[in-house]
Amino acid sequence: MTLPDKRTTITNIALFVVMLAAITASLAIGTLQLTPTEVALALAGQADPMTDLVVNQLRLDRTLAGLLTGAALAMAGCLMQTLARNRLATPGIIGIDNAATAFAVASVVGIGVSLAPSTMALTGAAVATALAFGLAGAKGTRGYRFIVAGIGIGAIAGSATQVLLSRVAIDTANAAYPWTVGSLNARSDQSVLVLAVGLGIGYLALMGISRALNTLQFSDPVAIALGTRLRSTRVLGLGLSVLLTGLAVSVCGPVGLIALLAPELARTLCRPGKVPLTASALAGATFMVTADLLGRTLFSPLEVPVGIITAIIGSPYLLWILLRPSQRSPT
Fold first, then answer.
1. Range of lowest pLDDT (45-49, 160-164, 216-220)
2. What is the dotted CATH code of the domain comprising 6-323?
3. Of the candidates 329, 255, 230, 265, the residue with the CA atom closest to the CA atom of residue 70
């Protein structure tokens, strides 16, 4: 485990403060407008019944789900980019999100599969990763072959999702729809709890191999000379990325651009040469909560799924990355 430098520490603190502001706004803004003081009183159990209902029963669970999913997707994206040494290698772009969604939808629409969506999403993420890794051949997660293979797998998984939805009753398809666009409305308490546990375990494991991840910015011979066990580090990192992605998708569906935007912001703010896992998690949580707040308030009483909001915001940035690729390493 490596200790954070001064710049990274300041960045993490600043991102944490911004995240708290986003949480407060999410709990305060809506059909019933509340002040930060009223939110604090409600969280402390000292508010009037109406305020307590709005904050603790209607908005808090959704906000927590946004925090957890945003942090998990951002950490998975940062990790995948580090392993592949490519800024575009995020779970959404290489098909892990779509495969996890397809498997989760399969459990929701009922095709004879009785496993929970979280279990099915993990299975789908693992299958997509294994296929992409196998099709990439000797290069593993490195190089564009891995990304191209993942894009193809994601396209197939997306088509499978549409086929599943087209073959069920309209009410069943509507129940599964939030999984296809990314929405916190599809969350279940069980999935959120499983995600919280998985995120905690994943974060601790990543902190344990943070030094090894930092060395992956160098060539393989240099990383080996620095004492890094490349194969075990990559296998563990890939497994944790699948875990975080699968559990996040089981809660919110595919919101892939969080995994692109948050690590990019974290790398811009943190010291170069380090893998900004903590900063990515904080930025991802903030992005997700803010996007969900915009989705449910901008066109109220109509609600726009969070996946659509992040796509509107993130797609231009993705195009910018493609047109002006950074000369810096993704780590």
1. 216-220
2. 1.10.3470.10
3. 255
